[in-house]
Amino acid sequence: MNKNEIIETEINGTPSATVIWLHGLGADGSDFEPIVPQLEIPKILGLRFIFPHAPLRSITINGGMTMRGWYDVMSLNRDGAQDEEGIRQSTLILESLIERERKRGIESNRIIIAGFSQGGAIAIHTALRYPKKLGGLLALSTYLPLESTLKNEVVENERSQPRDLPIFLAHGQYDPVIPFDAGKKSGLILEEMGFPVSWNEYPMDHSVCQSEIKDIGLWISKNLTA
Length: 226
Known about the structure:
By secondary structure, the chain is an alpha/beta fold. It has helices at residues 84-103, 118-129, 150-155, 180-192, 210-225, and strands at residues 6-11, 17-22, 47-52, 56-59, 65-68, 111-116, 136-140, 167-172, 197-202. It has one domain (3-225): Rossmann fold (3-Layer(aba) Sandwich), CATH 3.40.50.1820. It is built from five helices and nine strands; from the N terminus they run E-E-E-E-E-H-E-H-E-H-E-H-E-H. The chain is globular.
């Protein structure tokens, strides 16, 4: 991705770690930038936040309308067809951003992958398959995509993500877009695979609330200052 496709902000001086944060369907990289000050990251932790813009694409469930999306959504049925090609294309985008940070001097275990909704699905898919140890996975109001590929690509793949990857999952109890049960099921699957999952639920819909933002800030700070 070029610089015009990324919003980047740094806090507390020279970065020693990076958070790459993917937005949801129809939004763009500016969606989560305003919450950075609300995370209350300790001043001892220099941190770079990267908020990429998803590609413009036609979205089937929205009548083919063109908008920013990490992949097409062809059905609201969670057991329906998934845009595997789009998911894998966006995984390559996220992997390229990880490699960009490594070339800038940030080790992979100091990089947290984050995302909301559709962006969260790409964050999960990418992090589980990334071969080098990451600093953490932060997935909000989302689900586990391409579940049928997990056995071959993660469970039985020695080059997939180490099982001590810290994972923060959060979901609204009244989410009408991605049902609460879908998020909860994803967390249970990850736990069964051996990952340490911090499950967090909030009395909200498909959004982010203030108590969640506080919890996210504490989790990021804990994992990057340990």
